[in-house]
Design brief:
With about 150 residues, the protein is mainly beta. The chain contains 1 helix and 11 strands; from the N terminus they run E-E-E-E-E-E-H-E-E-E-E-E. Strand 1 and strand 2 form a beta hairpin.
């Protein structure tokens, strides 16, 4: 990663390396991303920003950076960032809603529906959080060819 002179780097934001091509910007009391902070960072693929907004959106913060790069921002703040960084709006994506829940349903016309159990039970009603293990068990006499998870 190449930074220009000292005053053009990310200021007052903690920059942590996740792996070779991913960086994470943690919120700090003063949230500033200066112009040219990530200029010519051709290998950078992901920037994750946890601040709901920034005080300063450096106009050229990602000038000539990787055109396929993604800038992930907190859920609900995508429009704020797209307004602050219109030149990079196509790169900005919101992180998943931290309160999102997922429900499990059997496909319509599933045979032997009464022989299926899904645990935990709330997976079929109120839903479960991401990364919760859900177990679908079939106790009938037919052969199950496949089970598919769909979003």
């Amino acid at each position: 990663m190449r930074f220009l002179p000292p005053f053009t780097a990310v200021l007052a934001v903690k920059l942590s390396r996740i792996d070779t091509n991913q960086y994470f910007l943690a919120a700090s009391p003063r949230k500033v991303c200066t112009s040219f902070a990530f200029q010519y960072c051709n290998s950078l693929t992901t920037v994750t920003i946890n601040a709901a907004n920034l005080e300063t959106y450096g106009e050229n913060a990602f000038l000539n950076a990787n055109s396929g790069m993604k800038i992930y921002v907190p859920y609900g703040s995508g429009n704020t960032y797209k307004t602050g960084w219109p030149a990079y709006a196509s790169m900005i994506e919101e992180l998943e809603d931290p309160n999102a829940t997922y429900t499990v349903k059997l496909a319509e016309n599933t045979d032997d529906v009464t022989n299926w159990t899904i645990a935990p039970a709330e997976a079929t009603t109120t839903g479960v959080k991401k990364n919760t293990e859900v177990k679908a068990t079939y106790s009938g006499t037919r052969h199950v060819k496949s089970v598919t998870a769909a979003r």
